[in-house]
Amino acid sequence: LKKNHYIIDLETKTIELTEKGINKAENFFQINNLYNINHAHLLHRIKNALKAFFIMHNNKDYLVVKDKVLIIDEFTGRILKGRQFSNGLHQALEAKERVTIEPETNISATITYQNFFRLYKKISG
């Protein structure tokens, strides 16, 4: 890909294909409309690959240790053990770094800290 095939927004850490990028992808995958709902999974994977290569950086956003991609907390700089980037981005980073690609984990539930703490009558510490 060339720089005129995509547009990067570093503030939001997003990447979008330009018309030239869309045409290149459609030609490469031999499809007519990349934005057709039937190709949503493909578009998502393309964007994850681009984000992994052009936005996410080793030793800043993540580390590679012993064949694993580990997330670095952007606020504390600490490694977030047992955590993965979601929606296939982690697997795109693993492919970028040429380490073993682990299956995606499923999020079974989410809760805000505020609601989590409401589950307890008393909190200390």
TrEMBL record:
InterPro entries xrefs: P-loop_NTPase, SecA, SecA_DEAD, SecA_motor_DEAD, SecA_preprotein_X-link_dom, SecA_X-link_sf
Q: Name one GO biological process term.
A: intracellular protein transport
The alphabetical list of record keywords is:
Cell membrane, Membrane, Protein transport, Translocation, Transport
Q: Where is the SecA family profile domain?
A: 1-125
For this record, an example GO cellular component is:
cell envelope Sec protein transport complex
Keyword Protein transport recorded: yes
Q: Does the keyword Membrane apply?
A: yes
Q: Which GO terms describe its molecular function?
A: ATP binding
Stored SMART domains: SecA_DEAD, SecA_PP_bind
Q: What Pfam families is this protein classified in?
A: SecA_PP_bind
Q: What PANTHER family does the annotation carry? A: CHLOROPLAST PROTEIN-TRANSPORTING ATPASE (PTHR30612:SF0), SECA INNER MEMBRANE COMPONENT OF SEC PROTEIN SECRETION SYSTEM (PTHR30612)
What name appears for this protein in its UniProt entry?
Answer: SecA
